[in-house]
Amino acid sequence: MPKSTDKTRIIHPHTYLKSNKIGVGIYLDYASSANPECANPGAIHSLGVREKNKLENARKNVAAILQSQSSEVIFTSGSTESNNLAILGVLNAAKEKIPHFITTNIEHSSVLEIFKYLEEHKKAEVTFVEAEQNGMIDPEKIRKALKPNTVLVSVMYANGEIGTIEPLHAIGKVIRHYNKINSRKILFHTDATQAVNYLPIQVAKLGVDLMSFSSSKFYGPKGIGILYVKKNTPIRKIMFGGDHEFGLRPGTESVILALGLAEALTFTEKIKIKEVKRLVKLRDYFFTELHKIFSSEGPTPVVRGRAQDKKFHEAKFIINGDLKNRLPNNVNITIPNIPGDLLVIELSARGIMASAKSACKMGDEKASYVIKAIDKNIRETDGSIRFSLGRATTKRDIIYTVKVLSQILIKLKKWYTQHT
Amino acid sequence: MPKSTDKTRIIHPHTYLKSNKIGVGIYLDYASSANPECANPGAIHSLGVREKNKLENARKNVAAILQSQSSEVIFTSGSTESNNLAILGVLNAAKEKIPHFITTNIEHSSVLEIFKYLEEHKKAEVTFVEAEQNGMIDPEKIRKALKPNTVLVSVMYANGEIGTIEPLHAIGKVIRHYNKINSRKILFHTDATQAVNYLPIQVAKLGVDLMSFSSSKFYGPKGIGILYVKKNTPIRKIMFGGDHEFGLRPGTESVILALGLAEALTFTEKIKIKEVKRLVKLRDYFFTELHKIFSSEGPTPVVRGRAQDKKFHEAKFIINGDLKNRLPNNVNITIPNIPGDLLVIELSARGIMASAKSACKMGDEKASYVIKAIDKNIRETDGSIRFSLGRATTKRDIIYTVKVLSQILIKLKKWYTQHT
């Protein structure tokens, strides 16, 4: 054992610790995390405990906004992982021999692709409820799809491409009613990724058991997301490792990303009402201006809901998605005979960044699968373009954008008239 | 169509774009990524292309260090996900009816737990090769475990707890020999998480098909990792969504984290040789000083390799793991009858951060499973403690730490002597 004389030779901790490089003590846990300032929240030394506290504070702040319990908030790497954990995790826990899932045909690819895989590999039965022409999901169609082996209904809160806000409340009611009558516990999941900036996200009011979202969509850091998991929801992890995140998601949490997410979400909540009002005005102004540049020639613009109109493809532009149940920041139009990618590139060359379809499904099909889903008659030559507004968007930006778009359309007119 | 008179009313792009808030143009792609400065690398507008270029540059830099192709570098959320993708991904692609895997009993929990799950749920056959008393894996034992239905061998590059460097080259040779004779294509995966700071990571030289590592262990940001996947390796994604990362890992990449990883890895490579030399010296000095404080009383300290020695549990301290094949930054000792957690807390109270066992497996068992694996006779009361050194560690830190440890041991002496 150590000699007791050693004791007298020890410098007082404060004297030494203040003078060393780290400034927080002597860090000898580099194998756990190389950066002492971002120690491993699973470590039991004081720096680990400090990080753990920060992490749990971030979780608490998120839970307060969702009006949930802290233990219902799971940090993931983003919406894609959250969606995978929600759906595959419920599948892993399901006792049904062939579990049945209900979803829609306009979900984000991370939801759609899971279900396509499950169906293809016969791991589950899946009903893809088709969206209406305005992009809305009919709760009655969900009701009709419910079966004795249904385990989960997954319907997005708002569609990122066409901005349609889905009737979550009505769908939740349908599920709860079915559960009550049949003594079942069918779960309700929503991908709220595109909704967080503008819509209420208090989980109890929404009536969901599982809700996914991603920090980078509400001005937080990229690389972190949330899966809300209601207490007592039967779900199992889909990756294996340590017992992080209540055993549902292994891997050391990035505390700094969690703090960034919580801070961004707090600010989003704070400005939500005001920002919604501001953007609805801007969005509607955008639509009005678009009408103006098209109205000088050809027939009146046709709104998606009237797609059966024979004159549909004679229209000069079409607004995609419901006009009323619509995200405040979404403007999505189809311009027949002009490819969306071309418009995006022409706009980009003039300093305007828009999108032709989800960046997650680039290059694998010509038209957006969401637009195809709401318009069976769309041709590959009909391009759609999405303008999604945000905190820095001004009326001046819209005026400028519409003018530039008008200029581009004149340039493309030759090509355009050759094809109509 | 637009009136051509509109054209004349357009402000010149540069005049307008310079004056607006974003400074990079008009950003109307908030639904894709809320931050224009971190646009979605999947977007086709100029900001998206810029991000995509940054991402591919980061990938190229990582590939250059690994001496691999860029398309062999997959960004994940960290080592845990990389390990899951490597093992479950190979399982997903396996054609064998019951695929057989070989691993060891001292892998990180993210590898061990996957295999335990696969075995338990009869999704695969798994051989857990036992480490020797010095923590080394015997390539001969791997050879004996190879079977006609073996699809993958997963052996860590270096153990994070006891610092043992495993004989990857010899194990790779054994696998290649078996493959050649039997016309098989058994894959070789290594979890290199703890090795990247100090050991060569050129994949061809290592002879691996798959290699996992995490940015936060080499002073990069937390929340990102790499899975190296050799060209033509049969592997399938484990999460579903967009076609990011060559179809192997869905979810928009965090470009800023990827840049951080690449930068940290580049610097790590640059200082590797010098840092290894410096830390080996410090580590061995640490061991020498530990010997000194224990040598005044009791029998000579016993090194793990000699654990069969009858006097083992009379030893005052035991060095865990091989002394030669050892990470330059690892000091791991067992002090019989003193709980490791207690030591960590006592040290932390004096400003010294060490670790009792992997932070990923806290609270679920008393002693570290790695120490248990190399010492079947260890008692729950025998605590082990790991000091892992790093870039800021100085000789003065070691001197101070050993003194403080000695002081703590004197304090615990009463308790200690009561129990021996």
Automatic annotation (TrEMBL), chains A, B:
One of its GO terms (molecular function) is cysteine desulfurase activity. Signal peptide: none annotated. Keywords: Iron, Iron-sulfur, Metal-binding, Pyridoxal phosphate, Transferase. Its cofactor is pyridoxal 5'-phosphate. The keyword Disulfide bond does not apply. It catalyses: (sulfur carrier)-H + L-cysteine = (sulfur carrier)-SH + L-alanine. Pfam families: Aminotran_5 (PF00266). Residues 43-282 form the Aminotransferase class V domain. Belongs to the class-V pyridoxal-phosphate-dependent aminotransferase family. NifS/IscS subfamily. This is Aminotransferase class V domain-containing protein. It comes from Candidatus Nomurabacteria bacterium RIFCSPLOWO2_01_FULL_41_12.
